[in-house]
Amino acid sequence: MSTAPASVNPEDRLFHLILALMATRSGLTKEHILSTVRGYREDTESGMARESLERRFERDKDALRELGIPLEATIPPEDDGNNKNTLYRIPKGAYDLPEGVEFTGRDIALLNLAATLWREGTLSKEAHVATRKLQSFGVSIEEPLLGFAPLISTRDPALTKLRDALESGVRVKFDYLKPGEAAATSRQVSPLALVNHEGRWHLYSHETSSDQIKTFLLRRIVSSVTVLPEAAVAASETVSSDALRDLEALYNNQIATLTVAPDSDAWSALSQRQGTLSTGATLEVHYTDADIFASELSSYGNDVVVLEPADLRERVIGHLQKMVGHHA
Amino acid sequence: MPKPAPRPTTSDNLLLLLALVPYVLDRGEVSVQEAAEHFGRTESEIVRAVELIACAGIPGENQAYSHLDLFDIDWDLWENEQKITLWNTVALDNKPRFSAREAAALLAGLQYLASHPAYSSRADLEEVMAKLRAGTGESPPVRIAVGAGAVADHVSLLTEAISSHTSITAVYHNKRGESGERTLDPLLLESRDAIWYVRAWCHTRQALRTFRVDSMESVELTSAAQADHSSVIDDISSELFDPSPTDVVVTIECPARALPIIADYLPRGFAPQSSEDTLQVDIPFAHYGSLTHFVGANPDLVTVVGPASARDAVRVFAEQALAGYDQGS
Q1: Domain that holds residue A19
Q2: For residue A203, is it within any domain?
Q3: Model confidence pLDDT, tens digit, residues A202-259
Q4: Which one in A141, B19, B231, B246 has a CA-CA gap of 20 to 30 Å to A34?
Q5: Nearest CA in chain A to B40
Q6: Does B174 contact A265 at a Cβ distance shorter than 8 Å?
Q7: Does a structural domain hold residue A1?
Q8: Three-state secondary-structure class, residue B161
Q9: Least confident interval from A45-59, A285-299, B250-264
Q10: Are B72 and B88 in contact (CB under 8 A)?
Q11: A222 and B192: CB-CB below 8 Å?
């Protein structure tokens, strides 16, 4: 290798770190890496402070893990507790795509489209890395599927913490504000799945105190989410489809009877919801959450009057009265 | 949607190196130009990446990066024809596996696509999902999912109009309470959570407009072909509604936690100036019909501070609605 310039650029160093960690069978110590791997070696030789080098190594390890690269750290049993002897490696078997997995150009076009769904917010990073990894296939990718751009928001502040908790299999605690209640209550749950239903994120979970399955709407979580040390209860294989099925059952079972002005925006939107029946100016419309649906109905103003159920009618009246009160 | 490509980050550059090796191995021989197109990078970025790889390797036994421990390319082919062929690889010779998180994001995305009428009939989605699961190695239960939900009937018609470049007619109800028949050239179908929008060239307005799909009725394909809108398609912004000089700016008050819920209405690039629990935000609205709809949809969260005419509009809107319940004031 030609004499390197004083500083090797970061991707060059990270690439060499990956190669060195993949080539080793038994693992490399930090000392060995800092003094031999390109990028570290140059800076060690030019006299960079040891602390700076070590901090850089820590950051590099995080950078690799963020790209989903399986970096292993093992402490040899005889050296228990001495992290100087920690051995680092990337097992090739865990890095490589399993043999026999081949994506066609069409598959890749579909996967790229699936990734665009998350182009905003907390899942966008993983989706982005995944599409870069897909570029390692030599097949020619079919024309991108034009004219279709789906997007799912992942703006709920609780989403990131809850995903982390799901992944590490631990319980969480948060304050939850039920509509109609004056104050939020603290809940402790084992998160089981995160599902997006009718455009809103829900946490499907096992509540510790009641020993029951509970579904929480993320936008009603009013505190930050605290990750607890206790292990979460196990989830079944079908947990996310169970969660969606529960919400869909709720939608199918709850029906409101409404009078709706014909030829209005409200009529157009409500008559197009799944399962709506119309008789004259009366629509029978399904809904999942009474409070959310009441807000939607208040947004239509005098184009909609709720006949039944009484609870929904009261909520809409309550919303409208609040609007009058706040703007008197 | 076409957007200026952001400057590649270190991660992007590293991922390029990691993907370029197996890509070249798959192809056998590949030109700089082809690779640049494939990776969406400039030719000079590809040249830099190839030159980095060609000299890369492992420290090896003598810890000196000797030539036996380095990648090697066909230098003649590279220098004479700008074509890449790998003669020797070190450690890295395969495509990277997806992490469990990456696979979960893609799987949830594919499941969502499967609910779209244009894709629901396709068996290949199931196949891709199975391959993706196999590609992760382990398969823990799927913990993130997006419900199919109901898709308006005309989503299929709109998809057809977009792919066949056909004009449509539809009755459209706007938030001003006006309804009318329009002739549209649908260009892009977009969903934000459960709400579908179509970006279309409006023949009446002679302009690009965004329409909510569930505010459209009596959608019909015409026999007319769309005019060429390719120049307009490049202008489609990532914002659904662009601010206009005729907008009315309304000051609202809301709790800080409401910001993610009302994000679609907030001015572009909005960031709260203070860490107060209650915030005041100026939001542009095309007309008071949009304002009353917005406040009505978030009655617990949003209060209009001013101007006075906006507060009046919201109050009158709610009073008129209450009259339907014999509770008008």
Answers
A1: 10-95
A2: yes
A3: 999 999 999 999 999 998 888 889 999 988 888 888 888 889 899 989 999 999 999 9
A4: B19
A5: A135
A6: yes
A7: no
A8: helix
A9: B250-264
A10: yes
A11: no
Residue B238 located in a structural domain: no
Residue B2 has pLDDT above 80, yes or no: no
For A18, B110, B253, B263, B303, the CA distances from A178, given in Å and listed in that order, are 49, 33, 22, 22, 20
A249 HSE (CA, 13 A, CB side):
6
| Contact call for A127 and B18, based on CB within 8 A | no
Instruction: Quote the pLDDT of residue B3.
Output: 46
A2 pLDDT tier (thresholds 50, 70, 90): very low
- A63 is written with which tokens? 């950078």
Average pLDDT, chain B: 83
pTM for this model (two decimals): 0.80
CA distance A135 to chain B (A): 6
Interface A:B, Cβ pairs < 8 A: 392
Digit-coded pLDDT (tens) for B156-168: 788 888 888 899 9
Helix (H, G, I), strand (E, B) or coil at A104: coil
Residues of B in contact with A275 (CB under 8 A): 150
Q: How far is A228 from chain B, CA to nearest CA, in Å?
A: 19
A251 to chain B: closest CA residue: B149
**Is 70 exceeded by the pLDDT of residue A307?**
yes
Measured CA angle at B101 (ends B99, B102), to 5 deg = 65
pLDDT (mean) for A95-111:
88
d(CA B319, CA B329): 7
Hey, are the CB atoms on B15 and A129 less than 8 Å from each other?
Answer: yes
Query: Across the interface, do B159 and A38 touch by the CB < 8 Å criterion?
Result: no
pLDDT score for B235:
67
pLDDT score recorded for residue B240: 67
Give me the half-sphere count of Cα atoms (radius 13 Å) on the Cβ side of residue A276. 24
On the question of pLDDT at B183 being above 80, the answer is yes
| Inside any domain, residue A2 | no
List the beta bridge partners of residue A28: A88
pLDDT in tens, B121-134: 667 888 888 888 88
| B176 and B107 co-located in one domain | no
User: Does A148 share its domain with A165?
Assistant: no
Contact check, Cβ <8 Å, B320/A301: yes
CATH number, position B51 = 1.10.10
Task: Compute the distance between CA of residue B138 and CA of residue B39 in angstroms, rounded to an integer.
Answer: 28
By C-alpha distance, the chain A residue nearest B196 is A150
Q: Name chain A contacts of B92, Cβ cutoff 8 Å.
A: 18-19, 22
Kindly report, residue by residue over B285-301, the tens digit of the pLDDT. Answer: 888 888 999 898 888 88
Task: Indicate if A234 and A284 belong to the same structural domain.
Answer: no
Closest-approach residue (CA) in chain A for B25: A138
- Which residues of chain B are within 8 Å of residue A322 when distances are taken between CB atoms? 299-300
- Enumerate residues 6+ apart whose C-beta is below 8 A from B163: A146, A147
Say if residue A220 is in the same domain as residue A163: yes
**Looking at beta carbons, which residues of chain B come within 8 Å of A305?**
324-325
CB–CB of A196 and B118 under 8 A? no
Enumerate the residues of chain B whose CB falls inside 8 A of the CB of residue A259. 324
User: What is the extent of the structural domain holding B51?
Assistant: 10-88
Q: Do A146 and B23 touch (CB under 8 A)?
A: no
The token pair at B38 is: 């494939």
pLDDT at B208: 85
Tokens representing residue B136 in the block: 């992760």
When divided into structural domains, chain A yields a total of 4
